[in-house]
Amino acid sequence: MPTHPSPNPVIEALRGAKHHFVYAALFSGLVNLLYLVPSVFMLQVYDRVVPTRGSATLLFLLLILGISLIALSLLDFARMRLLLRASIRLEKRAAPSILRRILGATSASPAERSTAIRNLDTLRGVLTGPAILALFDAPWAPIYIVVCFVLHPWLGAFALFASLSLTAVALASEQATKRAAADTQARAAVQGRIQDYAVQAAEVARVLGMRDTIVRQHLYDRADLVGRQGKLAETSGAFLALTKFLRQIYQSLALALGAWLAIHQWISAGAIFAASLLVGRALAPVEQVLGSWKNVLSARAAYAGLTSFLHLSDDTAPRTALPRSRGALDVAGVSLRAPGSERLLLNDVSFNVSPGEIVALIGPSGAGKSTLMRVVAGALPPDLGEVRIDGTNLTNWDREALGATIGYTPQVPTLFPATVSANISRFGAMRNGERPVELDAMVVHAAALAGAHETIQRFSQGYDTMLTIREAGGLSAGQRQLVSLSRALFGRPSLLLLDEPDAHLDINGEAALKKTMTTLRAQGTAILVSTHRPGLLQVADRVLLVRDGIVVPIDQLKPTDSHQPSGPVVANSGQGAGA
Predict the structure, then answer these.
(1) Please, what is the angle between helix 211-263 and helix 270-291, to 10°?
(2) CATH number at residue 250
(3) Among 254, 260, 315, 306, which residue's Cα sits nearest to residue 280?
(4) Residue-wise pLDDT tens digits, 8-56
(5) Are 344 and 337 spatial neighbours (Cβ–Cβ below 8 Å)?
């Protein structure tokens, strides 16, 4: 398994946006200093303008206030733009690497891969939300408290007490909702995946009369999730309500304290309202953070999930460029355990396929044929042993370069929501940035070689027929298999891995497939094919029996073995080894 170290793209992107955050913090400082202007304005109005009846002074103060508020708005807009650019930089720098790992990583679970890009979106969204603005404003709360101390020590002490008490409420809220928020988020993600799958399987549910029971199960699961979300919202809402109450009462008490100090002539009359505004401004970031605490928790969970995902071995890291593969396949001592158990799906499997040779895998359902094909293709990493192509371990190949020389049809043909031509060409136009005539010729050649050309021509728009996201992409099982086989044959692969490619083919399709395999063998292509039907065995050079995760050459079986296939089979005991 590869252990190539690679930088965390999220951390690298955030570091690359460091100057955006520095300037945003600088602008936040200027914004918070300008927030003092209304308090100073009120102080001057009550202490200077009113006693002296100075209209000119009032106009001058209004001019200063207007300019200051305009500057405040521009600076606030500028820091929002900076944070937006940081969010865009995070997308540009991190998304490509994360998407490559999602589609190319074999060591990550499906759940980790499906949530990785959503975690990035969550993290990116927080960079432009109110939570990060509150975090930028929070360090300036002590400045307002210091100004309160300048007005009078009692005002400063009260502002400090109020700020600490709201901070304590915020911390208590975090502790009270931390575990519930993480559990609810995880359950919501699982529920979303289950519902998506139910939509895909709706047809089967309707036919088998399972609709009502599935709906009942989903309603039960949704009720449980909604209940948990309700409890979480109730707890968070209680802390938020408490915070708002405390902030309002503290601001009113600050006004009352200022009035009491003014009565005793320890502060001026204007300082009464200034003190109330300053205390309110010191408490605002704490309330904002608590109000956005759900987003803060989501961002923290998203960052932790991304970090965990990106700490997995990077199967997509660049490798040294190697010559085009000749297709020589060697499987040595491969073993694979079932996820979460010690049961072996593959047990010490060893065999080889030479260029210009067809090796067939047979065996009962569940014996491990498809699992073995996925390991050979690099879709699953083995727990023990190794797969080598041209003598090089599969993990040391650049997957994109190697993939161009491999043809692979999975047991269940997987097509993408794009045109038939794009699927067959493996999105070659996207790779090259254009759709040259040569690419279309290669697509048609691959389809003709697979015996799919005439079938595709009967589609509504031929090769330009758009496949949909719905199950089967709008094609029948046989049509999907033909398109999948055409894609496998695209680009003249040197190694062809076919997992039951004849499962949905008729007699003519199977005959065309045998002819194609014979032609490719003559051209030096190495072919590994699994099948349940005896037809393809007629063109095989060797046959391997897969049973209970063990691979045995067919000529090593006893004549009484119940799995001995019928039909003409050429076995070569000099190649391949039993496990």
Answers:
(1) 160
(2) 1.20.1560.10
(3) 254
(4) 888 888 888 888 889 988 998 888 888 888 878 877 887 788 778 888 8
(5) yes
Residue 572 within a domain: no
- Identify whether the C-beta of residue 474 lies closer than 8 Å to the C-beta of residue 345: no
- Higher-confidence residue: 96 or 376? 376
Instruction: Report the relative pairing of strands 526-530 and 358-362 from DSSP bridges.
Output: parallel
3-state secondary structure of 425: coil
Point out the domain boundary residue: 70, 100, 129: 129
Task: Count other Cβ atoms within 10 Å, centred on residue 324.
Answer: 11
449 pLDDT above the threshold of 60: yes
Query: Per the domain annotation, does 305 fall within a domain?
Result: no
Give the three-class secondary structure for 398. coil
Question: What is the per-residue pLDDT across 164-203, written as a single tens digit (0 to 9) for each?
Answer: 888 888 788 878 887 887 788 778 877 777 777 777 677 6
Contacts of 164 (CB under 8 A, 6+ apart): none
Write out the two tokens for 249.
């009462």
Residue 61 in any domain: the answer is yes
- HEC assignment per residue over 482-551: HHHHHHHHCCCCCEEEEECCCCCCCHHHHHHHHHHHHHHHHCCCEEEEECCCHHHHHHCCEEEEEECCEE
How far apart, in whole angstroms, are the C-alpha atoms of residue 465 and residue 144?
65
* Tokens encoding 502: 């004849």
Tracing tokens 């708005």 back to the chain, one arrives at 73
Are the C-beta atoms of 328 and 354 separated by less than 8 Å? yes
Give the domain range for residue 202: 144-291
Residue 332 belongs to what H/E stretch? strand 329-337
Are 373 and 474 part of one and the same domain? yes
Q: Averaged over 87-91, what is the pLDDT?
A: 88
- Number of domains present in the structure of the chain: 3
The two structure tokens encoding residue 69:
């508020």
**Is 314 a domain residue?**
no
Are 244 and 390 found together in one domain?
Answer: no
| Sheet-wide strand order for 384-389 | 344-353, 329-337, 384-389, 392-393
Gap between the Cα atoms of 265 and 441, Å rounded: 93
Task: Examine the domain organization and report whether 152 and 95 are in the same domain.
Answer: no
Q: How far apart are CA 391 and CA 403, in angstroms?
A: 16
Q: Any idea of the CA torsion for 85, 87, 92, 97, to the nearest 10 degrees?
A: 160
Report long-range pairs for 563-568 (Cβ below 8 Å, ≥24 apart). 563/362, 563/363, 563/364, 565/362, 565/534, 565/537, 566/534, 567/534, 567/537, 567/538, 568/537, 568/538
Label residue 343 exposed, middle or buried (CB < 10 Å: 0-12, 13-18, 19+): exposed
State the chain's mean pLDDT as an integer: 82
First to last CA, the chain: 22
Residue 289 has pLDDT above 80, yes or no: no
